[in-house]
Amino acid sequence: MNRRLQESVVDLKARSMRDNLRFFNVKEDEKENTTEKIYDILDARNKVNIDRSHRVGRKRVSQRKPRPIVVKFNYFQDREQVRQNARKLKGSRIGISEQFPEEIEKIRQTLYPEMKKAKAQGHRIR
Question: Rounded to whole angstroms, how far apart are CA atoms 76 and 107?
């Protein structure tokens, strides 16, 4: 695929995921309502608006590790509010991260060791 076209596709994917967050280690149940689960975890039913949510990937035979939940918020500000308050979930083993296209995730994974090294040297990382 032509490079400019590929970059445009990645950009469009990133823009479509802009309002999304991924939630990890959320207990998985049969016939669950993931949106209700997220509202319960965040204790924010009347504070943020979720457009939709779903589990990612195939259902696993062993339930040792639940599949991540992708949550699309109606507003970017709601997503940011949840992301910034994620530290309040410390101790619950539930993790929250931004969602990026696969191509960007690969780049971020290669840069992670450099970030860790800079952090260890006392540099402020954002």
Answer: 24
pTM above 0.90?
A: no
The predicted-structure confidence for 42-80, as pLDDT tens digits, reads as follows 887 668 999 999 999 888 777 688 999 999 999 999 999
Q: What is the DSSP letter of 25?
A: S
Q: What percent of the chain has pLDDT over 70?
A: 97
Sign of the alpha-carbon dihedral angle for 29, 50, 103, 3: positive
84 Cβ neighbours under 8 A, 6+ residues apart: none
Q: Given the structure tokens 């207990």, which residue do they identify?
A: 27
Whether the predicted pLDDT of 30 surpasses 90: no
8 Å CB contact between 21 and 98: yes
Inter-axis angle of helices 102-120 and 3-16, nearest 10:
80
Q: Give the span between the Cα atoms of 47 and 49, in whole angstroms.
A: 7
Q: Mention the CATH class of domain 3-100.
A: alpha beta
